Write the structure tokens for this entry.
Amino acid sequence: MTEVDGNISATALKALSVLDFLGEQKRAVSVNDVADGIGADRATAYRMLMTLVQAGYVLRDASQKNYRIGFKLLSLARNLVSDDERSRAILDCLRLISDETGETVHYTALDSDSAVLVFRAKGTQRVSVDFQIGDRSPLPCTSIGKVLLAYSDQRFVERIIAQGLTKVAPRTITDADEMRQELATVRAQGFAIDDLEFAEDMRCIAVPVFENGAQVPGGIAISGPSSRFDLTKLDQLRQIMTPRALELSRKLSG
């Protein structure tokens, strides 16, 4: 039996689940859509939506029937990617790697049980994988996710593994012991690859960025179509990414 924390508001969690659901939609959705999306009855979904509309976090369209995420969330998030010394150092590093490789380069950070893309430098390659800032990805089957897991607390790693290693592509690692060995390898070699593990036509490589000593809140990744990104290409990218990431780590760690 799961112990209930009396400090946690079930109502607030339900409202936040509405925001999560709306944030994943590319169009305005109805009350019924929201109810189905959060697993609640229509009355509960409507009450949560109207509360969030009143607070400014959700917008209701002219028909008064459909809802979408509001711009107020942008105001809340602005300091996450503010123009400070840390952000400039990360972006400078990404641009240097992009200039050297011609590829789009991402800085992705650990956020709860997933990885979220925070910064990117657009490359010149016409055939590429176009991830956007704010995109989230699972940890076990992506190169950046494996990097973040490899340098995380073991209890966190075991919790992620216990949630299940879902097969999403031809080479997704679904065995718990194999995943533990993969993370040990990533930590030993200092980089991770995604070899058709997240999508059947994509490969990726990622390296850690250290802050405050041994902490790895984020890392640098490059993704590309498997038609261009064979294992030789990934190793060439690694040789460029690794020294740049180490230089950035020194700057961020003071």
